[in-house]
Amino acid sequence: MFERVLIAEDHHSVNSWVQQTLTTLGAIYVRQAHYCDDAFKLLQIAKADGASYDLLITDLSFREDRPGQKLKSGVDLIAAVRKLQPEIKILVFSAENQPTVATGLYDRLGINGYVPKGPRDEEDMKRAIKQIADHKIFIPLEFQQAVRAKNAHDFTKYDLIIISELAQGTYQKNIPYVLEQQGFKASSLSSVEKRLGQIRDALGFTKNEQLIAYCKDHWII
Hints:
By secondary structure, this protein is an alpha/beta fold. The protein has two domains: about 5-150, Rossmann fold (3-Layer(aba) Sandwich); about 155-215. It is built from ten helices and five strands; from the N terminus they run βαβαβαβαβαααααα. The chain has helices at about 10-25, 35-50, 75-85, 100-110, 120-135, 140-150, 155-165, 175-180, 190-205, 210-215; strands at about 5-10, 30-35, 55-60, 90-95, 115. Strands 2-1-3-4-5 form a five-stranded parallel beta sheet, sandwiched between helices. Helix 2 runs parallel beside helix 3 (about 75-85) and helix 7 crosses helix 10 (about 210-215). It starts with a strand and ends with a helix. Mean pLDDT is about 90; it is low at about 145-150.
């Protein structure tokens, strides 16, 4: 079980029961932070002191009532933490209950679990912590069912490079060169166009602009 856990959450009531759950499961030291910048600072200090945290539990949305914050969301925090301490386990606890949001975080930022806030969150939280401690990935059952039901597209690294480049303004004709630089062989313009068409069809879009907006809104890119 995890010995040192950091909770990044701006609702005190949520912090309280999550901390109690962790203590019940055997966590020795649990610290809380109400802002992403504060959470990141605590992680930096702990690492410098040779007492790194084992698990980060973070929300995705935080209040913006303190000016000057550099990390304004849980996604920003997770991205920064992955660079600071790549091996740390990360569990997202959020009211955002769209499977595609979680999928983007699993694929792009390597989170270890995602628990949606709701009627079953305490049960899911216990299961998630136990599974992650056993080096397993936790995906709530309702997300798995929703992904199958909606036939959501499973974004690959290849897909993410293509869509990210389009979002950054790269001309479609230049994307094959970018893919080759990333180690993908025999990437032609026609294969890029075909892949984009397959993704749009899977998600029900007709334009790349819709696909890009969708990926940004769901934190896939």
